[in-house]
Amino acid sequence: MASKSVEEERSLLVRVVGEAYDELRVLPGLDANGPALVWFAEHLLTAYHEDGETR
């Protein structure tokens, strides 16, 4: 059961980083591979956890 939980968390993390990258890459003058990506992905992940979404 624990491995399913880990796999779900990994899947969510991959999705969140992808979403953050897609959103940031359209902003002019912003490096979508830099610290902004980490910051935005972290905030998205927090929001998903607060909503109770794991998939």
Overall description:
By secondary structure, the protein is mainly α. It has helices at residues 2-24, 35-51. It is elongated, with a radius of gyration of 12 Å.
Low-confidence stretches: none
Percent of residues in β-strands: under 5%
The SSE string, one letter per element, is HH
Count of helical regions: 2
Oligomer state of the chains in this structure: single chain
For the largest beta-sheet, the strand count, sense and barrel status come to: none
Q: What attributes does this structure have?
A:
55 residues; 2 helices
Short précis:
With 55 residues, this protein is an all-alpha fold.
Sequence-ordered SSE layout with sheet pairings:
Layout: H1 2-24, H2 35-51
Helix pairs in contact: 1-2
